[in-house]
Design a protein that fits this description.
The complex is a heterodimer.
Chain A (H helix, E strand, L loop, with lengths): L5 H20 L1 H18 L9 H19 L25 H7 L3 H12 L4 H8 L3 H20 L1
Helix pairs in contact in A: 1-2, 1-3, 1-5, 2-3, 3-6, 5-6, 5-7, 6-7
Chain B lengths: L1 H8 L5 H15 L5 E6 L6 E5 L4 E6 L5 H8 L4 E3 L5 H11 L17 H10 L8 E2 H7 L6 H9 L12 E2 L12 H10 L5
Parallel strand pairs in B: 1-4, 5-6
Antiparallel strand pairs in B: 1-2, 2-3
Helix pairs in contact in B: 6-7
The chains are: A mainly alpha, B alpha/beta.
Amino acid sequence: MKLPPFQELLDAHREDVYRFLAASVGSNDVEDCFQETFMAALSAYPKVAEATNLRGWLFTIAHHKAIDLHRRRKRPEIPSGDFPDLSTGIEPELFDRDLWIRVQALPAKQRSAIVLRFVDDLAYRTIGEVIGCSESAARQNVRAGLARLREEIKE
Amino acid sequence: MNDLKTLLSDIGDLGDAAESAAGRFAQQAGELVDIAFMTIDSPIGDLVLAATATGLVRIGFDNETGVLEELAERISPRILEYPARLEQSRRELDEYFMGRRESFDMPLDKRLIAGFRREILSATAKIPYGGVSTYQEVARKAGRPKGARAAGQALGGNPIPVVIPCHRGLRTGGGMGGYAGGTDRKEYLLRLEGALR
């Protein structure tokens, strides 16, 4: 089985993985999760079983790193009323605001499914492979996550 | 309720942030990188330099395709752009191309050079700067007096050209012979070294 040079994977997928992690864990932790994801990928790379879906494989690692991070830290408190502007002044820290704090507080599979679907534009089948469920369960996770977000925003 | 989906999709451009995170990753990956590579420009075009932990393992010309893919297959796919490991090679090659260096000191990894090719290439490495030899002569020094043709082929398969000076091997009878980078580059190197005028 032929595996491409790892640099090719990094070049081709770094932005998508970064977007996934920024949306899943927020601006403060995206860097650490990104480094952990690619370090784990590089370490395991020569033994990867299938060269056919390396993109999905990378997202699977990122999905697990995001779960680890959320386990390590307490879930962010969802403030009521006005949300603090956590912008550092360098660039708008979009992922630290209202909607994304709620996304980050979703159950892991719903969170990853939502982010993979809308931020990274993945097909439901691939989302299922990444989070470890069927295509229809992936749809269900997206539906449930959206319903919950809508409910919370309405309040 | 499509507003929510639109909001979720609209996250702006994170390309620059991802690029700098990827750059930091290459710095941190250090020990895990089996093959570090970088591209340098030179008077004979861009060169890809690749090194294992042992040393310089491959130099590729820009007319060669699949240099890194071949290394991924033959050595390891853990390949990253990681110039720090190639600093000495880059510096010595720069000096060579400026005419200020006649031989190289960087450590080499010769794992891609096996058997007869290794004997031929070590015979070639003894041809001094500014000199040339014939395939036949190189074969004789490698202990294969009838191996001129095979010697030519072995030189053509040199994974570390320029540093291992296969360009100093000429066709028996005086023709330039072939070169992985093309005969123009071979001529350039021989002129640089003063072997051709």
